[in-house]
Structures are given as C-alpha cells and as structure tokens.
Design a protein that fits this description.
single chain, about 300 residues, alpha/beta, Rossmann fold, 2 domains, 14 helices, 7 strands
Length: about 300
C-alpha cells in the first residue's frame, strides 16, 4: 500500500481490502469500516447520484452523534496491544545509569530549566517523556521527537491522559521529514517548521548517536541546535570512555576516540556561552548553553 506521505488524509476502503484475510473482512469492525463501503462503492460506480432526503436538524444531529459514537468504539477495538521496544523502558532500565546518576541528572535539568524558564521547548530524543514532563513543570509547552514508535506512543498516551502540553512525534532529527505536496509547498519540512519556534532545545543522551550512528560532525550539530533554539540549549555530553559510546563505535575508536569534552565545549563556544553545568558519577556531563547575543541586539 502507499506510504503515509501519500495518504495524508487516510486510506480509502479499497486500499486495505485486498490485504485483509477473508474472515476478517466479514467480522466487526472491518465489516462496516472496509468491506461494506468497498462493495457499495463498486455497485454505485457509473450511476447517477441519488437525491438524499432532507432530515430535520435534530434528527441529523442525533444521527451524527450516533455515527461518531460507533466510530469511536470501532477505533478503540482497532487499538494495537501494548508492545515493548528496546527504548520504551530506557529511562528505568538503562544499565549505564545508577540511581544516583538519574537523581542528579533530573535535579540538574530541573535547576537549568528553572533558570531558562522555557515557554516552548524541543525535546530531541524525548523517549517516553520523562524530561519533557520536567519541562512542563517549569512552564513549557513541549514538542518531543523520537524515532522509537513504542516509546513515542507511550509518551503520547501519558500526555493525553494527563492533558499535558506535550506533542510527541515520531521523527529523526538526522533525517528530517521533507516538505511534501504540490511543489513541496503544501506541508513544510520538519526543520523549516522548527526553525526559531523554540526558546529551548533539550538533547539528553542524543549527541553520541548523531556523532557515531549518523556520522554528523560536531560543528554541524551545533549549527543545527543554534538554528532550532532562540536562546537556550541543554545538552548531555557522553565521553569516549562511556559504555554506550564504545558500543556505538564498534571498533572505530581511531576515528572517534579523539572526541572529548574539550573539543565539545570549543565547538559549542562558536554559538553559545556556558550558563551552568554538572558532572554525573558515570562520567557524563550536562551543559546549559545560552546563545550569544547578536551585536545589534546588545546595542543601546
């Protein structure tokens, strides 16, 4: 079947029908959602449209409400059963974080966001939303990006149940969704929509993935961060001695082993100044950066 970008308004009954097992076609809810509309569509092709009787407003409203109620029940039946992925329990099961690491990390994030006082925050690698919720407590509306479907679904379910201002999206910041539609102008690309839309960017446990998996150079990463945030960036640095760094290197230490905190900070200073930092017991470090003030903005 066609991809999601080709079916932004949803699938027609004729799209899934050939792929459904015969027994599934005849059972609820697919019988009413797919099979009957598909069969009726075939019978009405080429015939003149029939004139529908005009219903009293109160009857039309009652029918519409009943239809929406049945649709909600059908959608609830189609909800997939919960699944576990490698990352959907990451914040509670990561072996390279001790209880002390987690406590100190959360405490620093709370302290840093209390200083930044974000209104709009982009959480890159948001996972199940643990740190997104710390941002919400600091007063921010959050867009959380992650590539893991199950972790993002869990984040959305929690945010929806608690009515939190968190929008979890399945997206890869290293391979962002492009502009689509007529002449690529109907829907803008992810980076185009995100540029300048956030006063704070959160990147916790992400930068080593960009460096080692996506092979994005440090200067390019900070160029992107500066593009996305109008003021603050909170970034976690993972040293080359970290178990996750070593695992992602996969024997390529001669290519990436030279990357250290000194080079990380030197690269950051091209766009940011250090506002606060903390070092975790596991050797990782957390940095709150503030964008350099442009000369025109600092003039009296």
């Amino acid at each position: 079947m066609a991809g999601a970008l080709d079916r932004r308004d949803g699938y027609e009954p004729a799209d899934p029908y050939p792929y459904l097992p015969v027994m599934r076609r005849a059972t609820s809810p697919l019988r009413s959602l797919v099979t009957i509309p598909y069969l009726l569509e075939g019978k009405t092709k080429g015939t003149a449209p029939t004139k529908r009787p005009k219903l009293p407003p109160e009857v039309a409203v009652a029918l519409l409400r009943r239809t929406l109620h049945n649709l909600r029940r059908a959608l609830d039946q189609l909800a997939p059963s919960p699944r576990v992925s490698r990352w959907s329990h990451y914040t509670t099961t990561a072996s390279h974080y001790s209880a002390a690491d987690n406590e100190q990390k959360a405490a620093f994030v709370e302290r840093a966001l209390a200083e930044a006082r974000p209104r709009s925050l982009l959480d890159v690698g948001g996972n199940t939303g643990h740190y997104s919720r710390i941002a919400v407590a600091a007063g921010a509306s959050v867009v959380a990006l992650d590539t893991d479907v199950q972790a993002t679904a869990k984040n959305w379910q929690t945010a929806n149940a608690k009515k939190e201002p968190i929008l979890p999206l399945i997206a890869d910041i290293a391979r962002p969704t492009p502009a689509v539609g007529w002449r690529n102008r109907e829907s803008r690309g992810l980076l185009d929509r995100s540029t300048g839309a956030f006063d704070t960017v959160l990147m916790l446990g992400v930068i080593h993935h960009l460096l080692l998996v996506d092979q994005v150079p440090l200067p390019a990463i900070f160029d992107l961060v500066r593009q996305l945030t109008t003021r603050w960036a909170l970034i976690e640095w993972v040293p080359a001695t970290d178990s996750q760094f070593v695992q992602l290197c996969r024997g390529r230490q001669e290519l990436y082993g030279h990357l250290d905190e000194k080079q990380f900070l030197a690269t950051a200073e091209a766009h940011f100044q250090i506002s606060d930092h903390a070092r975790l017991p596991n050797g990782r470090s957390l940095w709150l950066f503030e964008r350099h003030t442009p000369p025109e903005a600092s003039a009296p």
